[in-house]
Amino acid sequence: MRLFGRKSEPVDPAEAITEFWTWWREARPEIDALVEAGDTARLDETIGEAVAALQPSLAWEIVAGLTAPHALVVSAAGDPELRSFVHRWALATPADPKWEFHPSRQADPLAAEFTTQVAGRPFGIDRLVLGLRVPPGTPRVDVSAFHPIFPDVDDETRMEATLLALDRLLGEDEVARWVGDIVAAEFEPIDAIPAIHLPAVVADVAEGFRDEQWALLEGQTVGGRPLTAAALYPLRPVDHPLFDQHIGVTLPYVNADENGQPTSASLDALRDFEERLRAGLKADGCAVLVAHLSAEGTRVLHLYADPTSDAVSRIEELVSGWSEGQAWIDADSDPSWSAVAHFLT
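^ thats the sequence. predicted structure below, dont judge the formating
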């Protein structure tokens, strides 16, 4: 049952996902027996080979399920280029009463009881404390973590232990959403609190960002002309893991002020276009408008879409009705949202 002996050439992601689940169905009896026997070495070899065949940079683990006895987690390990891939892997999972499948590490409801070995020393979340800072008006919690073993281990080990604990406390995706700067400290921060209170602090911060918000920005073009922009705030790829296709829509406009910004009928036309675009996207759920920029008589809209949807053709249909000049669309794969990197929060 060696489905993974080749791989000398790149494999289509959809093909790799299909192949993995074909293998899983055939290997399932052996995996169940290894889990029951607690044979971690054989599990590492068996599942590790299959996950590496999906993509060598993925991380995986078997943990207790939230509702099923066991859970297989296959994670992008913080790599934004792989986030959409593991979410598509998870969407293809078979129904199974004994197993759950997750594309990121999940919060552990018993995190306060979690203990493991770090550099040969016992590391328990119950002894981890955090210094927390929430910069005013931001959707982030900066964290300074300390554990009694930290003075005796190196920087990399401290950080690995801290990240492990944060994932246990919040879940990997929630860490990506709400945690900002992370420091694994050698000394206990002033006003540190037990780490188990972190989820409550994050929930308080998240409460202020439940409704859709937009940030208005001003700047200059390369040529020194005024530029205005608006961006979804907070703007984070983790909120839309399947939207890894960037769609840029460029709309020239006729009526502009001395700074090149839209006015009068052109401003109304742009607003109407955006309203119809938003309404269509909301109905289909296949794409999201994340930002737009206006300068020198042109507005550029940035959208992200599920490339398996018909978002591009639907947007092309809407753009074809633009009457103030030659509009155009560019669509490219962009899993890390690099086209709007300067807006990410």
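The first helix runs from residue 13 to 37.
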